[in-house]
Amino acid sequence: FFFFFFFTFFDSSVKNVFDQEGFSRQKRGYRNINDIEVNLSDPLFTKQWYLINTGQADGTPGLDLNVAEAWQLGYTGKGVTIAIMDDGIDYLHPDLASNYNADASYDFSSNDPFPFPRYTDDWFNSHGTRCAGEVSAAANNNICGVGVAYNSMVAGIRMLDQPFMTDIIEASSISHMPQVIDIYSASWGPTDDGKTVDGPRELTLQAMADGVNKGRGGKGSIYVWASGDGGSYDDCNCDGYASSMWTISINSAINDGRTALYDESCSSTLASTFSNGRKRNPEAGVATTDLYGNCTLRHSGTSAAAPEAAGVFALALEANPNLTWRDMQHLSVLTSKRNQLHDEVHQWRRNGVGLEFNHLFGYGVLDAGGMVKMAKEWKTVPERFHCVAGSIQEIHKIQSGNKLVLAITTEACQGKDNFVRYLEHVQAVVTVNASRRGDLNINMTSPMGTKSILLSRRPRDDDSKVGFDKWPFMTTHTWGEDPRGTWVLEVGFQGEEPQRGVLKEWTLMLHGTQSAPYIDQIVRDYQSKLAMSKKEELEEELDEAVERSLKSLMSKNN
Ligand SMILES: *[C@@H]1O[C@H](CO)[C@@H](O)[C@H](O)[C@H]1NC(C)=O
Ligand SMILES: *[C@@H]1O[C@H](CO)[C@@H](O)[C@H](O)[C@H]1NC(C)=O
Ligand SMILES: *[C@@H]1O[C@H](CO)[C@@H](O)[C@H](O)[C@H]1NC(C)=O
Ligand SMILES: *[C@@H]1O[C@H](CO)[C@@H](O)[C@H](O)[C@H]1NC(C)=O
Ligand SMILES: *[C@@H]1O[C@H](CO)[C@@H](O)[C@H](O)[C@H]1NC(C)=O
Ligand SMILES: [Ca+2]
Ligand SMILES: [Ca+2]
Ligand SMILES: [Ca+2]
Predict the structure, then answer these.
(1) Which H helix or E strand runs over 271?
(2) Where in the sequence is the active site (predicted)?
């Protein structure tokens, strides 16, 4: 993440510092698998390639969550409670019972305190139990495998197993005991049929807002969301839960770094973890606990990816319980890694402050070791501000072969109390209709030149009536950028038949800080860089850079 600091906080006169090789070494730090000393008795532990990937099941060695480093530093999730919002948890399972937090659990599907899964012959309701094991399965007990945060506590919130979902059930679930539950993991959302556009309703939105503002004593509930299983036919920016700023949306890679076939891409995904797909090897799935005391090697889908992220966040929270919901997102952005992920469709790119991202994987795969180390030293990010950068509310026609290009030039509320200088999330609130909604595609480019694909083609979506009504498309790709300047929105059609449509609104919403985050980290990282460096020349150069940056920071912050 050195690039980030450099571009964000150092003036252009020190550009040559950026060219030093050392920076990219830091970002993708090599880890020798043979150095890992984790000796656990759990029979499935060595099958859990997503924890430590030594090349099991034809995987790529080193492509994992780097949990071993976090464990070796002593972080295993102690004192942290993660709720699995799902179809229940087999809390009698011998690998889960000791970590089960009964007091924080509830069954909203049948209104009782016992979220035990309902029996069906086909084990349909095994999902929550499998997710729970990924987070909190106990270690060294000779049963199944181990959780990412194997000393954390897991709560069951049963809420998926009733005939209809209601706003009240969702809202009650995500606001259940927000002072006890630290992290909520959700592997559900609107139907992944490639034609649904839907999101949280009124009560659930309010519950989420209350969660991030008041949960955990005001530091904010951490909501982890699976980005969806709709594959290339769907776009997770059409899922208002995954695309919410208040959730951390997680996608998945398979054990050789490829995308899974069910992966949806979108600009609101923050980072990725692991799941199965494509591979026939039965051990390429996710090994975890299963119903009625069993274990499985075959947990799957982005559903399996979200709980892994919840586990990593539990390790970070143990390292620093002061982390806010935004700190967790910043840490994910800064420490996630490209590693050996590859997306055949979308390039990896760097945004205007040097952070590497991908349209499908977000900022890359979570790195538990990197995260706890940074979390330990982390200072809460500065206050967040919100700026309506501009709004176009006129009728604009869109036609196949003739895309609409609109621009908003903004000062990002500079000179006002709510000036946003360092971006976190950006939302483009769009009202548009079309003769075929699924053929619409929308891109937005920031003043620093970062293009976000806000909406890609969804071939199955044949809506011609509703369109998008004040829909908040979100991007995380411009994280850390300076939003001042001209933003460009491009709206066009892709597909066989000619289409037409009308855009009625584009409102650009900026969210972020006025003062530079990570000031302390910059200095510390430069210092450690200096300590490691053998070249005196480099030392001098870096010393100067630190001094200059501090001066410029002070002038910027005053
Ligand atoms: C792992 O632990 C077991 C039991 O404590 C011991 O017998 C075994 O030698 C250890 N293996 C390694 C590689 O340290
Ligand atoms: C699950 O566990 C039960 C009881 O231990 C056992 O009888 C059954 O065969 C197991 N099922 C599977 C699919 O492993
Ligand atoms: C958390 O915050 C408290 C109070 O501000 C402070 O004393 C403590 O050092 C912080 N802990 C960490 C790990 O930063
Ligand atoms: C889109 O909205 C415009 C203006 O309200 C309307 O005239 C047009 O018929 C609508 N088009 C579609 C495809 O719904
Ligand atoms: C948006 O970007 C994608 C990917 O670069 C491109 O294929 C598409 O044509 C663009 N659409 C518009 C409307 O500019
Ligand atoms: Ca029950
Ligand atoms: Ca175990
Ligand atoms: Ca979806």
Answers:
(1) strand 271-274
(2) 86 (charge relay system), 127 (charge relay system), 303 (charge relay system)
Q: Could you report the per-residue pLDDT of 283-337, keeping only the tens digit for each?
A: 999 999 999 999 999 999 888 999 999 999 999 999 999 999 999 999 999 999 9
The class that CATH gives domain 33-376 is alpha beta
Q: Is 303 a catalytic residue?
A: yes
> Which residues are near ligand 5 (CB < 6 Å)?
403, 441, 443, 453, 490-492
Q: Residue 277: what pLDDT?
A: 79
Three-state DSSP at 3 gives helix
pTM of the model: 0.88
Whether the per-residue pLDDT at 482 is higher than 50: the answer is yes
Using a 6 Å cutoff on CB, does residue 294 contact ligand 2? yes
Half-sphere exposure of 123 toward its Cβ, with a 13 Å CA cutoff? Answer: 14
Distance CA 298, CA 282 (A): 7
Decide: helix, strand or coil at residue 539.
helix
Q: Reply yes or no on whether the pLDDT at 237 is more than 60.
A: yes
CATH match of 385-515 with 3.30.420.40:
no
What's the pLDDT score for residue 535?
45
If pLDDT is split at 50, 70 and 90, which confidence band does 558 have?
Answer: very low
Show Cβ contacts of residue 555 under 8 Å, excluding neighbours closer than 6 positions.
none
Q: Where are the domains of the chain?
A: 33-376, 385-515
Task: Kindly state the tokens that stand for 347.
Answer: 């390039």
State which ligand 2 atom lies nearest to the alpha carbon of 291.
1
Confidence of residue 516 (pLDDT cuts 50, 70, 90): confident
Better-scored residue on pLDDT, 5 or 547 = 547
Residue 106, H or E segment: strand 106-107
> Percentage of the chain with pLDDT > 90?
82
Q: HEC states along 17-53?
A: HHCCCHHHHHHCCCCCHHHCCCCCCCCCHHHCCCCCC
The residue nearest atom 12 of ligand 3, judged by CA position, is 320
Map tokens 């007091």 to a residue: 103
Per-residue pLDDT at 543 exceeds 70 = no
Instruction: Write the CA distances from 475 to 189, 200, 336, 443, 479, integer angstroms.
Output: 19, 18, 17, 10, 9
* Predicted local confidence at residue 382, as pLDDT: 94
DSSP β-bridge partners for residue 486: 409
Dihedral pair phi/psi, residue 229, rounded to 5°: -115, 25
Find the catalytic residue in 265, 300, 303, 400. Answer: 303
Domains 33-376 and 385-515 share a fold: no
Which residue among 127, 299, 425, 511 is the active-site one?
127
Buried b or exposed e, range 293-330, using 16+ CB within 10 angstroms:
bebbbebbbbbbbbbbbbbbbbbbbbbbeebbbbbbbb
Return all residues near 25 (Cβ < 8 A) that are at least 6 apart. none
CA of 551 to the centre of ligand 8 (A): 46
